[in-house]
Structures are given as C-alpha cells and as structure tokens.
Design a protein that fits this description.
membrane; four-stranded antiparallel beta sheet; isopeptide bond; ubl conjugation; about 160 residues
Length: about 160
Amino acid sequence: MILGSLIYPAIGDICKDPKIDANSYTTVDGMVISDVACISEFSVDCNANKDFILIADKQGRQLPAVKSLDNRKYQISWTEDTENFYGGEHGVKVYDEETYAAVKKAYRNDEDVGNIPSAFFISLYHRGIYYGPWVSTEFVATAISVLLFYIAYSAKADLVS
C-alpha cells in the first residue's frame, strides 16, 4: 500500500488544464510541390513542472511531438497529399504517453478512438493550394503582341490606301 502511494504520484503526474499557444504553417505553392507540409509549433503551460512526452494522432498516423531546446515548446510536422487536402481548418489530437497507449490499443483492436480523451487539440488553418494564375503570363504577352501587330498592320494599311 505504501509502495503504491509512492509510485502513483511519480507516474500519475498529468497535465491538468493545459494552456496551449500554437503557431502553424502550411505550404501553399501547388506549382512546385506534390505534398503539403504542415508544421505546428506550440508551447504547453501546465501546472505540473514536468516534461511530457506528447504524441499527436492524425487519422491513425502517429506524429511525435519533438521538443525544442526551450523546455516548453514542441513541434509536430507532417505532409498531406495536395489533391485530398482542402483549404480551411484542420487539426490534430495530442495525447500524452499513457493515453496514446490506449489509442494504439484501440486501433489494434479496431475499436473507436473517439471515446479516448486527448490532452488537447491543436488547430491549424490552411489557405488552400495556389496553382498559379488562370492565364499564364506567356499567353498574355503573346496576345498583347498579336493585338499590337494587328493594330500596327491595320494602321499601315489605312495609310497606304
């Protein structure tokens, strides 16, 4: 009983009511990329003075949260296919080490992971993918050149006749 009361506080130190400050970035240039890179950097302010191992889950993909040199900043990054990644709000659920073990077990047993509470949710906004202008600049330059040639040729024909 005494041993159990000493071990529980050591492993049961959970971040209660975390305060999250997140900044996100996504690539948008569809002319040169085939996948959209998503990066979310966040800091966790917690009432417990402990470094947490955090793991994000993006539709069954495990995304480890990498801790920066500053003890309270983490970064999660992943890629998405440009054809399936729409503009708007996206996000990932972030779990601590213990709850992510339950998530892995639920995936392994084909159970619903919606019942497992995450530590917090990080949202990011994607503007959409830019595939370039609707009309290329080469086409516009050629069209203007042809128009100027027509105007000049017509003016010359009027002067000659």
